[in-house]
Amino acid sequence: MNHSGHPAMDPQVRATLSDPAISLLAYGHVQDQSTGNAVRYNPTAITDKLQSTVVSYYSNPPLTPDGQVRWLVLLGYRQAGKSTAPELCSYSKTAYTPGWDHVCIADTRSRAEYLHGRVHFCHNRWPEAIRSPTGGGREVRQLTFDPSVGGKMRVLSGESGAVGIGQSPDSFHGSEIPFWGDAERQFSLIFPSMINRNHSQMLLEATPWEADSWWHERCMEARYGDGRWVYAFFPFWDGKLNRRLWKPGDKLDNEEISMMERHGKEGLTLDNLAFRRLMMDTDPEIRRNPDLFRIFYPLDDVTCWLKTNRSVIHPDLLEKHGKREMVEWHGTYSEYEAPIADSIYVIGVDPAGHAARDHASFQVLKVEDDKWEQVAVYADHTEPVMFTERLMAVANRYNRAFVCVESNGVGAATIALLKQAEYPNMYHERPYRPGFTSTSQSLDKMLGWLQDALRDELIINDKDTYIQLTTYRHDKRVEDGVGAEMLRGGIGKKRRLRHHWDKISALQMAIVAARDAPRRIRKPKEVPDNIVLFKDMSWDKVQEHRKKSAVDKPVTRRKRMRYRSIKRRRK
């Protein structure tokens, strides 16, 4: 069919229509959830920011310093349109960009067909005068446009163990990734086809699921800003459907009070809590397991993950820490409390070698008799010399802190540099033996000391440290060393890749130092001398109350000890 006179043949028209921020908002249609009728697409109809973020990503994607388009990882809540919005945006891109190839993989075949059905729904209601012409024929899981005007869209199912996407796509959308058949293996086939395409766009989205899963690791990598990843999280109060009228006579329970104290300033409202009560009463899954509400409708991106038995840190040890207000990790170094004169500080160090395959990190703790508080953290890809210089600067700032470094492996270089600089306050495992040697026995001891500290003295201020604790799997036991990888030429079958648990390794070293450091007793809070006890009672009533309390108090009498005489004992 000849489409030479079609308006979309004009390159300027195509450039405008390929921008979803223009064409989708002007001409796109969706099915209204409440009425079922076709309505004009509006990214703020059911979400405050989530769908607008998706449209913005496809319209004007952020770039890496190398000029490559970043890939978006989106963590959100149920019923937000986070699967439909990327497909509608991709429709605008594909329909008016010749040769553009878009692929969507959903967790099930039915979801894949549903999402593609939303695309056809929008396409059929697009103004006919500017609608991108298709190749004709009935297509179920594919939409092919005239090659002179647009490209093609395909949907696949992630239920099978491997999904082939053919040639390198220009844009990729992964939906509900935790429920794919084998996401790790499937993405190992997809990434190579896209990593070198500078303009390629990728959006991965899902609700939270299991901690330490492949999806959890992708979210953490994007959160750190590794590679081409960029991260977006949306709590459940972003959804306009997640609100019900709060009845004036209703009262908050203790859990709801805690939620409002922590998240009220972030946007949580009483109407959101009314919705929570409704779901707790009516959703069968959530009624059986109330903890699922935080997963399906997350309040934050830390406590929303389903706990598994893979982490060596029991959730009970982290419960009190998760309830505290912690600081988001930004940059490479953060201080949570300035140095205090006469206070005692220790630093645990987890260095990295010249290859910088993982982060180098150190943790600073303020040591008191009943409290070890995290006051500063460093983590970055840093070679040994620069890392040691930064370590010494922080150690001197914190009253020449007591520094503990792992003595074997790459830590030997850091210890040598500290000795060369004549740093005076280092942990010694034995006389003339600075540092702490990591062996199979000492690693188990350090894990036990970490667990004890989490239960008793330790106070965590860095949110990222807490996140690493929730998935920590005793990485020193389950990762290959650098030398082993070089000799083998890769990761062993029963070993695992290095992970973002650098801060935990440094924290364990800090706890080793804290156990050996002198303790400073905290000064008790001064009680003002102008406090009047029993302020509503007269002097006579106070005396009468004290006498009555003394009479009512049970007296514990000890049995008198009797000793046998020496003469009797000798008989």
- Average of the residue pLDDT scores: 86
Distance between the termini: 124 Å
Number of helices: 21
What is the number of beta strands?
Answer: 17
The helix-and-strand class reads alpha/beta
Fill in the CATH topology of the largest domain: Rossmann fold
CATH superfamily of the largest domain: P-loop containing nucleotide triphosphate hydrolases
Largest β sheet strand count, sense and barrel closure? 7 strands, mixed
Strand content: 5-15%
**What is the spatial order of strands in the main beta sheet?**
5-6-4-7-8-3-9
Parts with pLDDT < 50 across at least 5 consecutive residues = 482-498
Shape: globular
Radius of gyration over C-alpha positions, nearest whole angstrom: 31 Å
Q: Using the 3D structure, state the CATH architecture of the largest domain.
A: 3-Layer(aba) Sandwich
> What share of residues is helical?
25-40%
Q: What is the total number of structural domains?
A: 3
CATH class placement of the largest domain: Alpha Beta
